[in-house]
Every structure is written in C-alpha cells, then in structure tokens.
UniProtKB/TrEMBL annotation:
UniProt organism field: Photinus pyralis
Organism classification: Eukaryota, Metazoa, Ecdysozoa, Arthropoda, Hexapoda
Alphabetized InterPro entries for the sequence: Ac_transferase_dom_sf, Acyl_Trfase/lysoPLipase
Endpoints of the signal sequence: none
Protein name in UniProt: Malonyl-CoA:ACP transacylase (MAT) domain-containing protein
Gene3D superfamilies linked: Malonyl-Coenzyme A Acyl Carrier Protein, domain 2 (3.40.366.10)
Record GO terms (molecular function): transferase activity
C-alpha cells in the first residue's frame, strides 16, 4: 500500500477549562481572534466583562468559565478561518460540541 502524504487536520475542542483562558489570553494579539471575542462580548450582559476575564485568566464563577471557554473556542475558529486553514475533522466535548458545530459549518456564529 502507498502512504497517503496528504496531512489531515483535526480540531478537538474541549469543555470549559481554565487552560483555555491561558491560551485565549495569548491569542488577543491576532486581530481575527480579538474581533471575534469583542463580537461575543457585545452580546453578553454588561456585568460579564468577557475580555477582562480572558485577558486576566480569572473567572469568578462556573458560568464565567463556560462563557469564556466558548468564546475562546469560537474566536479560535475565526482565527483559523482567517488563516484559510481547512479542517478535515472536528470534534468537541461539552461546549466544545457547539464550537465544533460552528467550525464544520453545521451551525452559524450566532447559533453557537
């Protein structure tokens, strides 16, 4: 058999985790990521300062962790789209399922 040299790209998206906050805080330097987080933040109640939560890597509640994790995942997908990176496979666990659904086109940004 011949080896298929085409590399496959798989994106696995987790459920809420504080590790995502560390990742997200470092991705703000990319305009596509930053713009997506700002877009999501504009949809949330004013008492949830999503940008501050992600940049400071600190959540006061489980609710904030879920919102921040989902925002980071969706914004990361936006960054991948900006880079024209096509995904062969997507999978998610917990809220990661929403992000995976957005990444593979099954739901749109607002639905996620």
């Amino acid at each position: 058999t011949r080896f298929d040299s085409k590399r496959r790209v798989c994106l696995l998206l987790p459920g809420p985790t504080e590790a995502l906050l560390d990742i997200g805080s470092g991705l703000f330097r990319f305009s596509a990521f930053s713009a997506a987080v700002q877009r999501i933040a504009s949809l949330l109640p004013l008492q949830v300062d999503l940008i501050k939560i992600i940049k400071n890597c600190k959540c006061k509640s489980g609710r904030e962790l879920v919102l921040a994790s989902l925002a980071i995942e969706l914004a990361f997908v936006e960054l991948l789209k900006e880079l024209n990176l096509s995904l062969d496979y997507t999978a998610g666990m917990s809220i990661g399922e929403l992000s995976a659904g957005y990444a593979n086109g099954r739901i749109n940004f607002e639905q996620a």
